[in-house]
Each structure stands twice: as C-alpha cells, then as structure tokens.
Amino acid sequence: MGVGARGTRPLAGLRVLELGALIAGPFCAKILAEFGADVVKVEPPRDGDPLRKWRHLQDGTSVWWHVQSRGKRSVALDLRKPEGQAIVRDLAARADILVENFRPGTLEGWGLGYDVLSALNPGLVMVRISGYGQDGPYSKRPGFGVIGEAIGGLRYVTGTPDRPPSRTGISIGDTLSALYGVIGALMAIEQRHRSGRGQVVDVALYESVFSVMESLLPEYDAFGVVRERTGSILPGIAPTSAYRASDGSFVLIAGNGDSIFQRLARAISRPDLADDPSLARNDGRAARQAWLDEQIEAWTSTQTPDAILAVMEAAEVPVSRIYTVADIARDPHYAARGMIREIRTGRGTLKVPGVVPKLSATPGDVDGGGPALGAHTDEVLAELGYDTARIAALRAAGAIA
User: Fold this and answer.
1) 174 is catalytic
2) By the 8 A CB rule, do 28 and 109 touch?
C-alpha cells in the first residue's frame, strides 16, 4: 500500500458505515477510507450503487466508481427488508460514523433513525447529507447537488451575462457537502472524546454551496447589489481574467495583488500603468476593470501562450494555461505531488486522482479500485458473528446478495 499503509493512517481503527448512493455521501466516506477508516458500503443487492453505471464504462463498470469507492468494502443488502434493517442495526452498533444521503425520513421509515441507532450505540456519529437539511419547510423535497447549486446562489452567478445560467463542469454542490460531512464527522468524533456521546451532523447541499458564496449576502444587505453573471472576471477584483493569446487560446493571469500588479504592468512594458497612482490599490483598479483588461489583452494577443507564461513567471505573476484533463495527465507537477495514481482493475491499470490533503507523518493512500458488488458481504457478516447457515438463510430470503 505504499507510504500510507492503512494501519499507519490517522483514521486507522475508525469504523464507518456508508448508506446511500451516488455522490455526496459516498464521496464523504471515500475521504475517510483514504485516511485509514474501515468503510463498509451498503448497496442494493440487484444493481448496487447507480454510480456503477454512470458515464464511461470499462468492463461494464464506471471508471468513476474506481475513484468514488476505492478502499471500501461492499455489502449487498436490501434495506427494505426487515432482515436487512436488522443487519444495519448490527453494523451501526459497532460503527463510529454512519454516513447517509437519503431524503430525510427515509431511514426513520425503515426503523433506522438516529434515535434507534444511538440507543444501540450512544457514541455513534451520524452524518446526514440531504438537499435541504433534516428540518425546515423544504426538508422533505428531493434535492441533488445541482438543485443545491441553484438555491444556494451559485448557478445564478455562473456564466456570461448574455446566456442562461451555466453549471460548473462537475457536481460541485455534492462534493462541497461531502467535505463538510468529513469536517463535521471529525469534529463530532473529537467531541466524543470529551463527552463519550455521538451526535448528528446535518449537512444540506444548498447550505454547503451558500457558505462559499463569499460577500454575496452582505453586499445585497448593505447596498442592494445582486451579483450577476460576469464571465471570466470577478467584478471588484482586478486584474484577473482569461486573456486571449496570439493563437486564439486563453491564458489565465491573476495580477490583483497590489505589488503583483506593479510587476505585471512592467513585465508587459506598461510603466504608465505601474506608475499610475489611481491603479495602486485594488479599489482604483476595480473602477477601471474593463479598460484595464483591454490593456493587458492588447499585449497578450500579440504573444504565444509559451511567451506569456515565460514573461509572467519571470515577473512572479500568477499565471497558467487553462488545463484540459490531457494537460493534467502529463503535467510533471501533478506527478511529483502524487496526484496521478495508477490502480489495477480487471483490464489492467487505470489512472485516478491522488489523495488530498497531504499529511507529513501519516499520509492517506489509494487502496486499489472500487469493490465488486457484494464482494465483502459474507466477510462483514462473519465479523458480526453470523454463521454460514444464517448467512445462507439471509441470501435465500433475498435480504443479501
């Protein structure tokens, strides 16, 4: 397993039970697994987590699956059957953390609410990720990450003014919520060290998005400003944008720090900009943002991307090409930081993202790809004390697979 062998990782010994499917809950549990937690993922017996069939498939399984479920153990279990519910109660009785992302009320309908499970295990921490949270007038509504992005304010400000609101190219509402789930789980475990008791971590998709919307609300409250779509710039922070190069491609330059702007202006042979007192601070530059971007692009449009990068890097101005995944896959810095990893699957090897964050003494690691459906059902039940006859009876009843 490399430098981050599971037994040496910071969450080694922590038992996690994952219920739910697709993105937010499983992404949360994936991070816990990378840092050493024993994650038991419960899936429906017939088809498993729908993510197994999302986007591009290799040998019948989504390659995304090998990112989202790596390092987990799969138990195929029907939560609608009383026998399946009883197994979940047994699993929860020995778990430290339970992660779920069903619609509020679903677990309660199966007799698996926190009141029931915490009575069996007072130290249990339950991470509950849902569209709108566990209470409030919208709590029973279904909600995916894109809905959280819409009601959380992100979708409205994303894109260009002349087009409909755009989406980001990934499920950012889900992944933000997953990160908050991890943070909440670890804070609740820390509190358990003091009190001996667990608690519920209630993560709403829309709140996770809203929490990163920076000054959106106070600007509206203080000035009545409704932030609009502005394309590649962020009004009020200048200069920072994607600038056209001579070949028609774009290079991102972020020169919005006061001293950085001075270096940028001199690097493009515009000492008049560097010496203009009205541009010395961000508020002055923001007042002339569109004009300033035109001045910078008048220079970049005469330069190749390589030339722009060379000049900006020499001046210590933050700059980058706008990477495609092909750029990422061959970038030496990604490789040096261990962010391009290879796992073995049935067909051969598969490149997957590395682990974040980097811990100096007890790093996380990648433990192969996602498990086959139900690959660990018998193993996990045996750990609970179920004998082979009982396991066979459960399988015959359709409660497990």
Assistant:
1) yes
2) no
